[in-house]
Amino acid sequence: MTATKIAWSIKIFAGLSSCFSPPLVPSSSLVALILPISSSCVALAASAKSPCAPRWAPGARLVRQFLTESVLLAGIGGAVGVALGWALMLGLKAWIPPLLLPAEADVSLNSQVLLFAIAIVVTAGILFGIAPALQSMKADLVGSLKEGGRGGTTGINRTYVRNGLAVAEIALAFILLSGAALLIRSFYRLQQVDPGFDAANVITMQFPMTSQQYPDGPHIINYLGQVLEKLQSLPGVRQAATTGALPLQGWPDGMPFLIEGQPFVEVAKRPAAGFKPVSPSYLAAIGMHLKKGRWLAETDTAGTAPVTVVNEAMGKKHFNGEEPIGKRIRIEEIVPGQPALGPEIAWEVVGVVEGERACGLGDTCAGLYVSYKQSPSPQQALVVRGAMDPNHLIKSIQAAIWDLNKSQALPEIKPLEQIKSESLGENRMRTVLLGTFAGLALLLSAIGVYGVISYSVTQRTHEIGIRAALGASTWEQLMLALKTGMALTGAGLVIGVRGRSRPHANLIQPFVWRQPTRPLDPSVRQYRVGGGGCSGMLHSGPQSDAGGSLGGAPA
Question: What are the residue ranges spanned by the domains of the chain?
Answer without folding.
Answer: 2-93+108-193+426-528, 208-409
